[in-house]
Write a structure and sequence with these properties.
The structure is a homodimer of 481-residue chains. Chain A has 481 residues and is an alpha/beta fold. Chain A has helices spanning 13-26, 39-46, 50-62, 92-98, 106-114, 135-144, 161-172, 189-200, 237-245, 268-280, 335-349, 354-365, 368-394, 421-429, 457-480, and strands at 66-69, 73-76, 121-122, 183-186, 206-209, 227-230, 250-254, 285-288, 312-317, 329-332, 399-400, 409-414, 432-433, 435-436, 447-451. Chain A has 15 helices and 15 strands. Chains A, B: It comes from Lysinibacillus xylanilyticus.
Chain lengths: 481, 481
C-alpha cells in the first residue's frame, strides 16, 4: 500500500481516494467484510489530512460501499444489492479469521510496515543500517563466485555440504565440536525456531524463557499451541523446572550472549548453572547465539561448548553481521534431531537459497567474514558511545540504562510507566518508530529497545530529542491525572 | 550420512562400522531409542555386504549398546548401566515422535536421500538436469548485478517491490492483471501452499484435489490437520462440492497446465467449468501454474485470467525453469489475502533471499528468462521424443502412456499392478531411483512418474532397461503366485 494521491492535476485528493478504495473493492481485492485501516492510519499512509480521509469515507458509506460498525471501525459492506461487491466471492475474511496461525501483534505489523518507509526515523530496528552492510564487498564477491551446476538444483535436506563443513570450522573457535551431519542450514534463526516448534514439541509443550524475551515479539511456538513460561534462574532452577513442567514436554530458550532486547550477557557460571539444571531435569536447551560476534569484549564460550550429551540445540546466523537479506542461519544438534528437522524443512520450503549459501561459504572460507565483523564491531562501539553520550546529556532525569556490551541495543528504562501504545502511536505520528518494551514483555511499561545500529547520527539525535519531548509530555499528563 | 568404511589400512570393515556406530552414540548423536536403518539400508549406504553389517550389529548388541525388538528392528539401547549411553539426555526420540509435523513418507525420505548420491540414476526426479540449468549465464549475471544496500536488509513483508512489478508485467502476458500489492514473493511454490494452509484455513478444512495429486507426496495441508478429498470434475461439480464440504471451509487445489505427475493439460472449457463451479459454491481455487512455461505448444490462459472476483490464488515459480536453488516463487491474490499471508511469512522466515530476488528480477527485466525458456523447451522436447522412442521400442507390451505435452514427465502406466515398495527397493538396489505412483495416489499400483528432464540419454537408456527387467521379473513372479 504505497500509493499516495497526486497533488497535481484536477482531481481532488478526496476523489482520488474514493476511486482508489472503489477500485480495490471492484477488483475483489478488498473483500466484503474487510476492515479498513483507521482514519488516522489512512491519513498517515496517504499523506493527507484526516478530514480528507473522513470525507472520502463518508461518501462511500453513503453509496453503500462501506459500512461503519459502532465502536469497531469501517468495513467493506456486505451489501447484496451493490453491483461493486461480489457476492460470489469466497468469504476471505472468515477464512483469515478462523485459520490456524496467529497474526502478528498490531504494533509489530505497524513496525514491519513503517520500516519500509524512508521518511521515518527507526530507533528500535533490529537490523544493521544499510551503510553498515558490506554491500560493495558482497557485490564484488558475487563476481568471484563460481557456481557448480549441481548447487543450483534442489538442495540436500540439511543444506550445502561445503557450507556445513565451513561452519564446523567456524564454530570450532567457539569451542563447539560438530560434524556436517550435526548441522542444518536454515533461512535465518526464526526458521530454526519454527522447525523446532513443529518438529520436536507436542501441543501444549512448555517453552521456558526469561521474563523479557524476543520470543514474545514473534510467534513460532505460540502459533502452534505451545505455552510460554517466564522463569527466574535462581539456585532452585532444576527443581522449579521439574515442578512447572509437570508431565509435559519442555524446552528452555536462552540468549546468553547479548540478549535481545535487554543486551544482557551471562557469566560462565550462569551458563553452567542453566546447563546443569536442564541436564538434571532432562530439558533440552535452545541456545540462540546470533549476536555473539558483536560483543565488544572477547566472548566467553557458549553453552553448546559444555554440551557432552547432545542436550543443546545451537542457533547461529549471518543476519545480524553480514546481511539479513541473505536469509542464512544454522542449527547445530544431535544427528537424530537434525535429520528430523531437515526432513521438515524439505516439506516446508525445499531448502534455503543456493546462491545465498554460496555467498556465506565464500565469506567464511576467505576470512572476509571475520575481517568484516572486526570493523563492524568498531563502528557499533562508536555508535553505542555516541548514543550513550546523548542519553547522558538529556535523559538522566527521566531514564536509566546500562552501557551496551555489544550488539545493537540499549535497553532504556524510563523512571515512570509511560511506554504504551499511545506513546508508540504519538511517536509514529512524528515519524519516529520505536520498539516498545511491551512487545517483549506484555507487562512492561517502562522500557524501549533503543537501537544504535540503524539510524544515522543525525537521526539518532533528532529522534531521541523527539522521544524526550513525548516522554516528558506523557509524564506531565500522567501526573495531572 | 555419507561415510563409508575404507578398504585400505588394517582395520576391518566390520570394526570400522562398529566404531562409526559407537561414536554416533557416544557423541549423543544417536540417542537412546533411536531406530537404526535396516541391515539392507545400512549395507547399501555403507557400500558393504549385508553380512558385514549384520556381524557389526551383533557385536554391539552383545555389548549392550544396541538392542533388537522383535519384528521392529534394531535400536540404540535404553541401558542404564552402559557408560556410553547418556542417561541425562533429553528423550529426543519421544520429542520427535509426539511432535506436530508429520515426517515425510519413507519412500520420499529415501528419494530425498538418494537424490544426493552420484552413483544413482534418477528416473523420476522433478528437477532439471544440472546441464539444463543456465549455470554459466547465472554466474555471468551475478557480475552484472548491482546491489542496493537496502536490498540486503530485511525484506518488506511481500518481498522486493521491483520484483513484484516485474512479475506483474510477466503475468500480464498470461492474461493476469495484478498490482504489486496483489503479490507475495515466496521461497518456492511449496511455501505458498504452506502459508495458505496455516493462514487461510481452519483445522478440519477440506482440500479438494484430483485423485492423483502432487499434494499427496508433500504435507503442507495434512500436517496442520486439513482433510484431502479427491474429486471428479464432472457436470455435477458445483453440487458435489457443496455436498462434500458440508459446513466446513474448503479450497480447490488445481494444476490445470502440465499436471504433476500425470502431465495432463486442461482444455479452456474445463478451466471455465471449475471456475464457475467454485464461484457458485464460493470455494477458493489454488491454481498451481509452475510448469506452464514448459508446454511444448502455446499455453492457453490460466484460470486466474478468468477471475473477476478475487477467487483464485495463483502460484508461479522459477524452480522448474531457471533454478530450484534460487527458491523464488510468487503468490497472486486479493490484497486482503496477500497481506495476511505476507504477515505470516514474516513470522516464518522474515522473507526470501534478497540476492535470489535480485537475480530473478534481472532475468525477467533483461528478457534472459524468456529466451532461456525457449531453448529449454526445445531440449525438453528432444528428450521427451528420445524417451518415447525407447518406450516404443521396448515397453509397448507391458505398459502404455500418452505422449508428453511438455514439462518433465511421462505418466507411465504398466498393464499389471506391480508398482509397489518392493519394486522401488529392488530398483534402488540396482541404483535406479524411481518416483512410484503410490506417492501421488496411495491406491495406485500401476504408474511411475518417468522424468526425462534429469538423467542423461545414456542413463535413461540403461535405467529404462533395468526398469524393464525388474518389471518383467515382478510380472512373472506375480503370475506364479
Amino acid at each position: 500500500m504505497n500509493w499516495q494521491p497526486s497533488r497535481q492535476g484536477e482531481i481532488t485528493l478526496q476523489q482520488q481516494i474514493e476511486t482508489w478504495i472503489t477500485e480495490h473493492i471492484e477488483r475483489g481485492d478488498w473483500v466484503a467484510g474487510t476492515k479498513l485501516p483507521t482514519q488516522r492510519q489512512l491519513a498517515m499512509q496517504l499523506g493527507v489530512n484526516r478530514s480528507t480521509v473522513q470525507q472520502a469515507l463518508e461518501e462511500l458509506k453513503a453509496a453503500g460501499i462501506l459500512e461503519a460498525k459502532v465502536g469497531s471501525g469501517i468495513y467493506v459492506a456486505h451489501n447484496s444489492w451493490h453491483s461493486l461487491i461480489k457476492q460470489t466471492q469466497p468469504n476471505w475474511q472468515t477464512y483469515i479469521d478462523t485459520s490456524l496461525h496467529k497474526p502478528n501483534y498490531h504494533t509489530i505489523q505497524l513496525i514491519n510496515e513503517y520500516e519500509q518507509r524512508d521518511d521515518v526515523i527507526r530507533l528500535g530496528t533490529g537490523e544493521l543500517a544499510p551503510s553498515l552492510l558490506p554491500t560493495t564487498e558482497i557485490e564484488a564477491s558475487l563476481k568471484e563466485l563460481s557456481l557448480e551446476p549441481k548447487a543450483l538444483g534442489y538442495s540436500s535436506p540439511q543444506g550445502s555440504n561445503q557450507l556445513r563443513e565451513a561452519i564446523c570450522e567456524y564454530v570450532k573457535k567457539r569451542g563447539i565440536h560438530a560434524n556436517p551431519q550435526n548441522i542444518c542450514i536454515v533461512s535465518g534463526a526464526l526458521q530454526a525456531l519454527q522447525l523446532i516448534a513443529v518438529g520436536l514439541l507436542e501441543q501444549g509443550s512448555i517453552v521456558f524463557q526469561e521474563q523479557t524475551s524476543y520470543l514474545n515479539s514473534v510467534h513460532p511456538f505460540q502459533s502452534v499451541g505451545m505455552q510460554m513460561m517466564p522463569i527466574n534462574r535462581d539456585e532452585q532452577l532444576a527443581q522449579t523446572l521439574v515442578q512447572k513442567k509437570r508431565n509435559r514436554q519442555a524446552v528452555f530458550y536462552a540468549v546468553p550472549t547479548l540478549n535481545n532486547p535487554t543486551g544482557g550477557v551471562w557469566k560462565e557460571l550462569e551458563k553452567n548453572q542453566l546447563y546443569e539444571a536442564c541436564k538434571q531435569s532432562r530439558i533440552p536447551i535452545i541456545e540462540d547465539d546470533v549476536y555473539h560476534e558483536l560483543l565488544f569484549e572477547a566472548a566467553t564460550s557458549p553453552i553448546k561448548s559444555m554440551d557432552d550429551s547432545g542436550q543443546v540445540l545451537y542457533i547461529g546466523s549471518v543476519s545480524k553481521t553480514l546481511s539479513p537479506g541473505l536469509r542464512i542461519g544454522w542449527l547445530i544438534g544431535p544427528t537424530t534431531v537434525i535429520e528430523r528437522l531437515a526432513d521438515i524443512k524439505m516439506q516446508t520450503d525445499y531448502g534455503s537459497s543456493a546462491v545465498s549459501q554460496e555467498i556465506v561459504l565464500h565469506w567464511l572460507q576467505t576470512g572476509k567474514y571475520e575481517k568484516h565483523i572486526k570493523s563492524l564491531r568498531k563502528e557499533l562501539l562508536r555508535r553505542a558511545n555516541f548514543v550513550e553520550g546523548i542519553l547522558q546529556e538529556s535523559f538522566t532525569e527521566i531514564a536509566s540504562w546500562s552501557p551496551s556490551k555489544g550488539g545493537f541495543y540499549i535497553w532504556l528504562k524510563f523512571d515512570e510507566p509511560i511506554v504504551d501504545k499511545e506513546l508508540f502511536t504519538k511517536l509514529l505520528q512524528r515519524q519516529i518508530l520505536i520498539n516498545p518494551g511491551y512487545i517483549y514483555d506484555p507487562q512492561d511499561t517502562q522500557h524501549i529497545r533503543l537501537s544504535y545500529a540503524y539510524a544515522t547520527d543525525e537521526e539518532l539525535k533528532i529522534g531521541l530529542q523527539i522521544v524526550h519531548e513525548c516522554v516528558v509530555e506523557a509524564i506531565v499528563k500522567r501526573h495531572k491525572e
